[in-house]
Design a protein that fits this description.
Number of strands of chain A: 0
Largest sheet of chain A: none
Oligomer: homodimer
Structural class of chain A: mainly alpha
Strand content of chain A: under 5%
Chain lengths: 235, 235
DNA sequence: TGTTGACCAGATTTCATATTTGGTCACGAA
DNA sequence: TTCGTGACCAAATATGAAATCTGGTCAACA
C-alpha cells in the first residue's frame, strides 16, 4: 500500500479536524488548502497524499461528520427503539443537523454556490441515510406507510422547505428550530406513518434490524474517507 | 383625483401587459422601464404617472396576476365546492402557479436575487391568499385540522420545498410537476385535514363563505394596483 | 520512502472606466 | 390648466485589464 500515508498516526484525521474547524470559522470559499496544512502542522503537498482535490477533502469532512451523526442516531435508537418512529426519527435528525456546526456550514456552502458542486458530496451522506434498503425495511415493518407517492423524494422535498428559510423570510417572521422540528414531526406523524402505532415487539425487531443495516453500511464509507484512490462509490 | 391618469382608457393595463410580456421574455433584471414604455407605445415618464418605482410597477404586475389566479380558483370552487378540500385546493393551486408564466418568472426573480427585495410584493399575494380570515374559516368548518402547529407557516414551508427544486437536484433526479402535485396532495390530505371528510352540506356552506370572503377581499387589492398614491396597505 | 514548499496555470479579486437605467422635471401639446 | 414626454442626471451596473490568490504538481530533499 504505497500511497497510503502512515495510517495509524491519525494524520488524516488531524487534517480533517483542521479543515472542519476552518470551515466553520471561515466558510468553504475562504478556506485554503494551505491554511489547512498549516493548522494541521504539515506541508501543503501532504494534504494531497490523502485526497486528490479540495472537493474530495471536504467530501471526506462531510462524510465523517455524517457518519458520526448516524452513529449518534443509532445510539439513541439503542437506548429507545421508539425513536425509530419516523416522526421522532426525522425531527430528531433535523435537530441534530442544526446542532452540528460542520453540517450547518456545509449546507450553507451548498445553498450559497447555487451550483450543484456539492450535490455529489451530499449524495453520499444522503445515500448513507436514505438508502433504499432502509426505506424498504421501514415499510416492511409497517413504520412508513406503503402508499406515500415517491416516498424518498416527497420526504426530502418536504424537509427541504424547513431547512431553507425562504418560507419564513417570505412571511417576514422568524421560526426557531424547535418549532420547525415540531411542524416536521407533526407532518411525518400524520402523512408518513400508518394511523395505528406499530406493535412494540415489532418495533424493537425493526430497530435492531435498522441498527444492523447501518452498522454494516458504515465501514465502507469510513474507508472511503481515508482512501486515496477511487473517485466514487465506496462499497 | 388629479394624479390618476385617464382611468377608463386602460393605459395602466397596457403598461402592465407590456411589463408582463417582457418579464416573461427577458426576466426581471433585463427589463427596463424604457422597453416597457416603448412596447406600450407611450413615453417613459408616463409610466411614472402610474407607479412611483419599477419595484412598485412589478408589484402591480404580480398582484394583478395573483388576483386573476384567485379568481380562477374561485371559479373552480363555484363549479365544485369539493375543491375546497385542502388537498385539492392546495395541489390545484400548485399546478395553476406552474401554468402561469408570469408567476413563474417572478418567483424565479425572487429566487435568483436572494435578497428579499421581493418579499413585500409576495407578501401581498400571500396575504391575499393566506389571510388569517381564510384559515380561521377553514378550521371552523372542519376543513383544516385545528391542531396543526403553526398552520400557515408549516403549510408554506412544506410547499416551498416542492416549489424550489433543491431536493430533486440533490437526489440527482427529475420530478415532474404533476408528481409533485400528487405528493403535496397526499401530505395535505393526511397531515392537514381531519381524518373524516366533512359533511357535504357543511362543505357547500364553507365554500360559499370562502367565495364571499375573497370576493370582498379582492377589490381593495385591485384598487391598489392602479392607485398612484400610497406605498403600502390596500384596504 | 515519505514529505515538502517553490512553482505554475487558471481562477478570482480589484479597481478604474464605460455604459446602462431608474427616476425627475422643464417644456410643449392639447 | 392638464397631461404626456424625452433629455437629463446620479447611481447602479457592466466591462475589462492588471494584480493577486489558490488548487494542484513535482523535483528535490530528509
Amino acid at each position: 500500500m504505497a500511497e497510503r500515508a502512515g495510517q495509524a498516526d491519525g494524520r488524516a484525521d488531524r487534517i480533517l479536524d483542521a479543515a472542519a474547524e476552518l470551515l466553520v470559522r471561515l466558510g468553504y470559499r475562504k478556506v485554503t488548502i494551505e491554511d489547512i496544512a498549516q493548522l494541521a502542522g504539515i506541508g501543503k503537498g501532504t494534504v494531497y497524499l490523502h485526497w486528490r482535490t479540495k472537493q474530495q477533502l471536504f467530501e471526506a469532512v462531510l462524510l465523517r461528520e455524517s457518519i458520526s451523526y448516524v452513529e449518534q442516531l443509532l445510539d439513541g435508537l439503542r437506548r429507545d427503539p421508539a425513536m425509530l418512529l419516523p416522526h421522532r426519527f426525522v425531527s430528531e435528525s433535523f435537530l441534530m443537523v442544526g446542532d452540528r456546526s460542520v453540517l450547518r456550514a456545509l449546507s450553507e456552502a451548498y445553498v450559497q454556490q447555487r451550483q450543484h458542486r456539492f450535490a455529489d458530496a451530499f449524495l453520499h451522506s444522503q445515500e448513507l441515510l436514505a438508502s433504499e434498503r432502509f426505506y424498504g425495511l421501514m415499510i416492511r415493518h409497517g413504520l412508513f406507510r406503503d402508499d406515500v407517492p415517491n416516498l424518498s423524494y416527497t420526504l426530502s422535498a418536504m424537509m427541504m422547505g424547513f431547512h431553507l428559510n425562504d418560507a419564513a423570510d417570505l412571511m417576514g417572521i422568524e421560526v426557531d428550530t424547535r418549532a420547525k422540528a415540531e411542524s416536521i414531526s407533526f407532518i411525518v406523524r400524520h402523512a408518513f406513518e400508518p394511523p395505528e402505532p406499530p406493535d412494540p415487539e415489532e418495533l424493537a425487531k425493526a430497530a435492531s434490524e435498522v441498527i444492523d443495516v447501518f452498522e454494516a453500511l458504515i465501514p465502507p464509507y469510513r474507508t472511503w474517507i481515508y482512501a486515496y484512490e477511487r473517485t466514487h462509490e465506496p462499497g
